[in-house]
Design brief:
The complex is a heterodimer of chains A (258) and B (295). Chain A is of the alpha/beta class and 258 residues long. Chain A contains 8 helices and 14 strands. Chain B is built from 12 helices and 11 strands. In chain B, α5 crosses α7. Classes of the chains: A alpha/beta (258), B alpha/beta (295). At the A-B interface, α4, α5 and α6 of A face α5, α6, β7 and α7 of B.
Chain lengths: 258, 295
């Protein structure tokens, strides 16, 4: 079957969601993934957008987080404060975030590269990504993989991952116990975390991705599971829903949220 | 609008704009640009037309979590600010952090706390974030210092002449933001009779004694969407204002070249035809069941 790497990313993300989850999502692929999960195995999913929208019905695919379609017939319209109190209380199972960069220990950077006051490169800023990364019970980062986007250590921690990777680093920093990044989904593969270190689990081999390419596109010697698997391909039904029901076209939404 | 902005938005002051990716007070922002009010500190979340203040070199400082226009690879406004020698100082925190700073400001207390942002680099670079210990448990917390902007501007669907206004839809940081401000300007799609506001007082943003000025301005949030009123035209904003080749002509024609929002909308209709604007209006309105009050 023909499918794009973006569609593969969306499908992997959707499958991480469980029925009954409350997911705090950024714009773009995360929203598409949440809608897909809702239409397949997670009909009781609650989707939370940071401007205050809480909804259990999918809507026309929003071009931003907040649009009239994403507000209309929401379960609740609240505000940014309320949304984040849900997360801080531990009532949000999962967060989906995009990122400019992600490092060896899952810290994300959507702020700048280089010195903060004289940056070599400036991103738009983290928005709510830090809140998702700090407070959701677990979170998943979704971003395209290039070596420059996967430095060993980010210059600015916009959203805390496992910090320096030492055991209990998040808890020592004061973050809610047991929280942290769970998966990272790129256009090349799927990663988890072992001992606070990014660890390759599967590659999108069926879409032609090679292990060497995944290794070449991080800036440090990549940790891998003893046997790196192949990412399960999208099913015909998933692709049909994505294209014809949700109206997703690769490249039609921004690739990262947060 | 012109008088309200001239009176309450002074050069060098701190301004909060409501409308977190929904119904921002863009007509007021255009008026600030038109009057060339300089050295502003702007506190805002996910507003788009604030970027015009950046592009026009009117900002001294931005207190934000995100501004797309800081991303110079895909837009021209930060670069324009640099060339004007007016790239603003940045004070960044997360969106929750910003909402807490404003909430503390609303309460009149010095700070609020959260665990968000602990372990992040925000605490090293923003002097208004500090790690503290909980006085009861010793647990680490991030203290977010209160913000009390001089003036706050919120666009609303309807208001009575005294400034008791209804706003609905997603509320972003509107409530804590506007309540944190010393002076409040309400802009509104429509001035209505007080009775209409008082029939549904749960929806009223602030009591009128908090409001310094009320301005009626239809399409006052364009190119943003506003619940119950119109959809967004953001792709057009991105195409005209975030691109160097079209930017100057656009601001000359639609900001400096008009007296007010009404004239701007007339120009848009002249340039693109009335159907261009009509297509943004709500095609399938959904009306809620009325709320019953009375005794």
């Amino acid at each position: 079957m023909n499918y794009t790497l973006s569609e593969q990313m969306v499908v992997v993300a959707a499958r991480l969601l469980q029925d009954g989850d409350a997911v705090y999502t950024g714009v773009g692929l995360p929203t598409v993934a949440a809608f897909l999960a809702k239409l397949t195995h997670a009909p009781n999913l609650t989707i939370i957008f940071e401007t205050g929208i809480i909804r259990t019905d999918p809507c026309l695919l929003p071009q931003g987080v907040d649009t009239l379609p994403s507000q209309t017939l929401a379960d609740k319209l609240s505000d940014a404060f309320y949304i984040n109190t849900l997360a801080e209380r531990g009532l949000v199972n999962l967060g989906f975030v995009g990122a400019g960069q992600l490092d060896r220990h899952g810290n994300i950077n959507s702020t700048c590269v280089g010195d903060y006051r004289q940056p070599r490169f400036r991103f738009p800023g983290g928005g709510g990504a830090c809140d998702i990364a700090s407070l959701c019970q677990n979170w998943v980062a979704i971003l395209r993989q290039k070596k420059i986007r996967f430095p060993e250590r980010v210059d600015f921690v916009t959203g805390p991952g496992y910090l320096d990777g030492s055991p209990g680093a998040r808890e020592r920093a004061g973050l809610p116990p047991g929280t942290g990044p769970k998966k990272v989904i790129t256009d090349l593969g799927v990663f988890g975390f072992v001992d606070g270190e990014l660890t390759l689990e599967t590659i999108h081999a069926r879409a032609g991705v090679r292990l060497e390419t995944v290794r070449e596109n991080v800036a440090w010697p990549l940790r891998e599971l003893p046997s790196v698997g192949e990412t399960l391909e999208p099913t015909g039904n998933e692709i049909d829903l994505l294209r014809n029901r949700i109206g997703y076209r690769s490249g039609s939404v921004t690739e990262s949220g947060g | 609008m012109s008088a309200a902005i001239r009176e309450y938005v002074q050069p060098g002051c701190t301004v909060f704009f409501g409308g977190m990716q929904h119904g921002e007070p863009s007509a007021a922002i255009h008026e600030i640009v038109r009057q060339r009010i300089e050295r502003l500190t702007v506190v805002s979340a996910l507003t788009h037309t604030v970027a015009l203040l950046l592009g026009e070199g009117l900002l001294q400082k931005l207190v934000v979590a995100y501004l797309f226009d800081l991303y110079e690879r895909e837009n021209c406004l930060a670069g324009r600010a640099r060339r004007l020698g007016a790239y603003p100082e940045l004070e960044e925190m997360s969106h929750y952090g910003l909402s807490l700073a404003l909430f503390a400001g609303q309460m009149g207390v010095p700070f609020m706390t959260t665990r968000s942002q602990l372990g992040s680099s925000y605490l090293q670079h923003n002097p208004n974030l500090k790690e503290i210990a909980c006085p009861f448990t010793g647990q680490k917390l991030a203290a977010v210092r209160a913000l009390n902007p001089d003036v706050g501007i919120l666009h609303t669907q309807r208001s009575d002449p005294s400034g008791a206004a209804h706003r609905w839809g997603s509320l972003g940081m509107d409530l804590m933001g506007i309540n944190a401000c010393k002076t409040i300007i309400i802009t509104t799609e429509k001035i209505v009779a007080p009775e209409i506001i008082r029939r549904d007082p749960n929806r009223t943003v602030v009591p009128s004694f908090r409001v310094a000025a009320v301005v009626e301005v239809p399409w006052g949030a364009y190119p943003l969407h506003l619940a119950g009123c119109y959809n967004s035209d953001l792709p057009a904003f991105a195409a005209m204002c975030r691109v160097e080749s079209t930017y100057q002509a656009h601001v000359d024609r639609f900001i400096y070249g008009v007296a007010d929002r009404t004239a701007m909308m007339q120009r848009l209709a002249e340039d693109h035809g009335q159907p261009y604007l009509d297509r943004l209006k709500i095609q399938q309105p959904i009306e809620s069941t009325g709320v019953i009050n009375g005794y």
